[in-house]
Design a protein that fits this description.
By secondary structure, the protein is α/β, with parallel strands linked by helices. The protein has 2 domains: 4-169 and 216-223 and 235-240, 3-Layer(aba) Sandwich (Rossmann fold), CATH 3.40.50; 172-212 and 243-319, Rossmann fold (3-Layer(aba) Sandwich), CATH 3.40.50.720. Helices cover 45% and strands 15% of the residues. The chain is built from 12 helices and 14 strands. The chain has helices at residues 14-25, 41-45, 57-66, 80-85, 87-108, 141-160, 186-196, 215-226, 248-258, 270-277, 286-292, 300-319; strands at residues 4-7, 30-34, 49-51, 71-74, 111-113, 116-117, 164-165, 167-169, 171-173, 199-202, 210-214, 239-240, 244-246, 263-266. Strands 3-2-1-4-5-7 form a 6-stranded parallel sheet, sandwiched between helices. The chain has a 3-stranded parallel sheet with strand order 6-8-12. Strands 9-11-13 form a 3-stranded mixed sheet. The N and C termini lie far apart (39 Å).
Length: 320
């Protein structure tokens, strides 16, 4: 990677990935793009930035060609819970944007990355230690988008020789960007509410295991995969990656170690609970480990400690 274009740069992943990439590859070599212009103003001013609607194929191509990029990281997408509320909009944005990004990367011969998700699995997928290759019959629009995306990236690799790569991310936990409409957002919200109010009402029920990952591990996974030897990549566009498998009460128990008076309540959201129930309890990352050396640095204990520390600093700055 030498000159990198990132779509959806102001989203949950992009708002942390862009600074990380600029740190590694140089400020001027990472072009951030998003449909939003005013939100997170610091990012739009900290390096090259272009306003981009990813459904506008010509605008996307023009920006990529203008900056002579050789790497395309496509993050722009509507997340699971929001996509379920607006399924047709989600299809047009998620799939239309992906097709445009792949076509642009193909025309300019770029290396290409886009994330898939555990949402690509469904209720008929094995729930525990979900294999790399298994049945994928999701029951959400987000999941349908992700399976379609995996297959589309495979197609562009096989048909056109495009160097496509991707991972199936679990729920991502971050103190930088606020929750953005995902099913696993409770695992971010709980930290905010623990510090602000000393209690949290979870919309996901007790006993609901889902895979999670702290954002620093996710960023390292993207960079490591993109730097990997292409001859060793077999599964290319859909590597299972994970860090922890946890239920809401596991987060509560860890938080109580730092905030003893913390209380957890439950008011289940049927829509998001149904999505969570259709996903695996835990997934098997063996292929990612073997093919490009995937690893994680944060377990639940380390994640909780760091998240509370960083978020407390952020909330103090917001007040100040």
């Amino acid at each position: 990677m030498k000159k990198i274009l990132v779509t959806g740069a102001l989203g949950q992943i992009g708002s942390e990935l862009v600074p990380k990439l600029r740190e590694v590859y140089g400020i001027d070599n990472v072009i951030a793009t998003d449909i939003k212009q005013e939100k997170q103003f610091w990012l739009t001013q900290s390096g090259p930035y272009e306003t981009l609607d990813v459904t506008n194929a010509q605008a996307m191509f023009d920006i990529a060609k203008k900056h002579q990029v050789d790497t395309f990281i496509h993050l722009a997408a509507l997340l699971s819970a929001t996509a379920e509320a607006k399924p047709l909009f989600a299809w047009n944005l998620n799939m239309g944007g992906l097709v445009n990004a792949l076509e642009t990367a193909k025309e300019l011969q770029c290396q290409f990355f886009t994330p898939s998700s555990i949402g690509a699995f469904g209720p008929s997928t094995p729930k525990d230690n979900t294999p790399q290759v298994t049945i994928q019959r999701p029951t959400t629009m987000y999941g349908v988008n992700k399976v379609s995306g995996e297959l589309l990236c495979d197609y562009f690799n096989l048909k056109f020789g495009l160097d496509t790569r991707g991972v199936r991310f679990p729920g991502l936990i971050s103190y930088v960007a606020p929750p953005g409409g995902g099913t696993t957002d409770y695992a971010v919200e709980i930290f905010y509410e623990a510090l602000r109010r000393g209690q949290y009402t979870s919309y996901i029920s007790q006993g609901t295991y889902m895979d999670m990952m702290y954002m620093p591990d996710a960023l390292n996974a993207i960079i490591k995969l993109m730097e990997a030897d292409p001859t060793k990549l077999i599964h290319r566009n859909a590597y299972n990656v994970t860090a922890i498998s946890a239920q809401p009460e596991d987060f509560a128990a860890e938080i109580k170690k730092h905030i003893p008076h913390f209380k957890m309540n439950y008011k289940v959201d049927p829509v998001r609970q149904a999505i969570a129930d259709s996903w695996p309890n835990s997934i098997d990352p063996t292929a990612a480990i073997n093919e490009w050396g995937f690893s994680r640095n944060y377990n639940l204990e380390k994640l909780t400690s760091d998240m509370l520390e960083k978020l407390q600093q952020k909330l103090r700055q917001d007040v100040g």
